[in-house]
Specification:
Blueprint (H helix, E strand, L loop, with lengths): L2 H13 L7 E2 H6 L6 H9 L12 E2 L11 H10 L18
Parallel strand pairs: 1-2
């Protein structure tokens, strides 16, 4: 499978994550035909300016918002959707999709 095909699969899955819910890089990878969690993370980092994908709904397997340049923005977007992030930046398991 080509990289553009995998990117399309990743972006299609991310676009389906409902507001107020999150999923992990690994869960997204498992729904594709060959992507790895690292590839999903790279795809999220390389989204073009002006995109509308809900990238903020993708978190690590530890249920934490990763420590990256967009972490504050990610937490704010999640909070706007009603997702509670605790002091350790973890998200409750009942909010995970699918």
């Amino acid at each position: 499978m080509s990289r553009p095909d995998l990117l399309e699969q990743i972006y299609t899955i991310v676009d389906q994550i409902p507001a107020g819910r999150v999923t992990t890089y690994g869960r997204i990878a498992a729904m594709t035909e060959g992507a790895t969690p690292r590839m999903v993370g790279t795809a999220m980092r390389q989204l073009p300016e002006g995109h509308t994908l809900p990238w903020h709904r993708v978190v690590s397997a530890t249920r934490r918002v990763a420590d990256h340049g967009g972490a504050q923005c990610q937490m704010e977007k999640l909070r706007e959707e009603g997702v509670v992030v605790d002091a350790q930046r973890r998200i409750p398991t009942h909010l995970f999709w699918p």
